[in-house]
Amino acid sequence: MNTTNSQSQSYEEIDLLELIIKIYKFFKKRFLLILAVMIACIGLGVLSSFLVFQPRYQSTMIFQSRSMTASEVVEITNTLNNLVREENYNEIEKLTGLPKDIAKNLEKLEAAPNREIQKNIDKDIRKDSTIALTIETTNNENLEKIQQGIVSYFENLPYVQKRKQLFKENKERLLAQIQKDIKHTDSIKRIVEASLFAKNPIILNSNSGFSKDLLLLYEAEGKVKEELAFIDDIKVIKGFTHYQKPRKFSIRDTLGISALIGFIVGILWSLVIEFNKIIRQREQNTI
């Protein structure tokens, strides 16, 4: 029984050794063919990356949203990116207002939270509301229109419109209340000041109290008016930049991918040649 096990183990080692030898002979025999195919694929890959593919210009816009979080903006941007990938320019024009000839230049849209700016954002802004949106386009002459289209798309989302309307109504009510308090405080101040010249003046602990209250109310009024003046939900911190040079192709990636494709094609080609050789030999033996 031990003899049988040792013999089977010996046969397996011989078969494995023979397989390694066959593989070695195969690569040794077809090495020049595989190398030639790899070199040809690398040459075609480099040539096509510079001559066939259109140049891509990359630019980033940084903005904040009062209503949406960064994760929500990322998902909405992914929807636009999917429309670009499937070349659905009719839907892109419907959502953003971008003409088809401009939409056709878009290659990629990608949004992500802008961590650096988030470190210094105001406390009243949602923690993850600062977003960096990067686009790739084959034409860098229409970046302003693309920015306007993207911002318009975010602004006109039904959810954003409702939040913006609620924000406006709340601020208008707050402004009306502040202005009412200003009139009330100012009236009391005038009464007190007038009473100083009367026979029975009104005595207060602090004569400057009304002035301080009015100053605070005026500051609050100014802040609310400023918020109402800039009612838009999207606040662009930095728009797209017009770069003159396109984003370069990665030579390392191009060489690596082309070499891998060439290696695979070379092996398949060599296998086809070997199979044809074996088939011809068997046909000759059967004759």
Verbal overview:
InterPro entries: LPS_length_determ_N (IPR003856). By secondary structure, the protein is of the alpha+beta class. It has three domains: 2-51 and 250-278, no CATH class; 57-160; 162-233. 66% of the residues lie in helices and 10% in strands. It has helices at residues 2-29, 31-51, 70-85, 89-96, 100-103, 115-118, 143-155, 158-195, 209-229, 251-286, and strands at residues 57-65, 106-113, 130-137, 234-238. The protein is rod-shaped and about 130 Å long. The two termini are 46 Å apart. 18% of the residues are buried. Residues 121-127 have low confidence and may be disordered.
Report how far the terminal alpha carbons are from each other: 46 Å
Radius of gyration: 37 Å
**Total discrete domains:** 3
Structural class: alpha+beta
Average pLDDT over all residues: 81
Sheet-strand content, in percent, reads 5-15%
Overall body shape = rod-shaped
Task: Give the structure's gist in a few sentences.
With 287 residues, the chain is α+β, with helices and mostly antiparallel strands. The chain contains 10 helices and 4 strands; from the N terminus they run ααβαααβαβαααβα.
List keywords for this structure.
single chain; 287 residues; alpha+beta; 3 domains; four-stranded antiparallel β-sheet; 4 strands
Topology:
Elements lengths: L1 H28 L1 H21 L5 E9 L4 H16 L3 H8 L3 H4 L2 E8 L1 H4 L11 E8 L5 H13 L2 H38 L13 H21 L4 E5 L12 H36 L1
